[in-house]
Amino acid sequence: MAEIDPDRPHPARIYDYLLGGACNFAPDRAFAEQFLRVMPGAADAARLNRAFLRRAVRFGVDAGVTQFLDLGSGIPTVGNVHETAPGARVLHVDNDPIAIAHSEIELADAPNATAVLGDLRDTDAVLAAAAEVLDLTRPVGLLMLAVLHFVDEPHEPLRRYTDAIAPGSYLAITHGTADGAPDKREDVLRLYASSGSPATPRDRAQVADLVDGLVVEPPGVVWTPLWRPDEPAAGNPAQSLTYAVVARKV
Ligand SMILES: C[S@@+](CC[C@H](N)C(=O)[O-])C[C@H]1O[C@@H](n2cnc3c(N)ncnc32)[C@H](O)[C@@H]1O
């Protein structure tokens, strides 16, 4: 299982720093600052991603979903799943022990939400943990936000999860892409590779392919701020650096 290595930057804590959080170490902050030099909009992109999380959870609540499996959940700070869906059962899974330790603190007052350490590629273990707290015979909101670009071969895990969830469940994804800044692609790849967490940005068609076999909800695969925004999206949506999609299992 993953070990705590505060000397190496980690995606959970880099993202926390970009969100303005305090659960990060010097190497995470140094990496984030380097990333911001390549991609000055990265902090806005992190906030836009978290805002999508709330819209995606609300989408599920409106559809009657009362349980959520959040894979690659990071540190569930303000406005996270259990706050958007009070009373829902939530399992957070992340492969960073520090993110999980902080999750346990954040979730101390949320009796229906728990967090476990796990790698989403280890589908048997994750599904076993999920079956302990969720009823997988009933619809689940499966959240995989800003995580699949850290997974080299996501199709097989995705197949396992979508096979395991009941009809009426839905999958929400945000995914890093270089479509909006192709000239920065190599710099970003090099930077992440140097951190020990290589990233695989995918284009729009590749993101659409991740939900193949499910029914894609309108408006389809779009820049994250354009997925059913609460208010008209400001600025250039490509600066979100991610695509969003929600798809339903029928
Ligand atoms: C950019 S953060 C996104 C956090 C959260 N999903 C959100 O959108 O606010 C990516 C998270 O994915 C986690 N992660 C990366 N690879 C993972 C894997 N193979 N299994 C589980 N978690 C993973 C990282 O530790 C990190 O917390």
Automatic annotation (TrEMBL):
CDD domains: AdoMet_MTases. It holds the Pfam family Methyltransf_19. This is S-adenosyl methyltransferase. It comes from Actinokineospora globicatena.
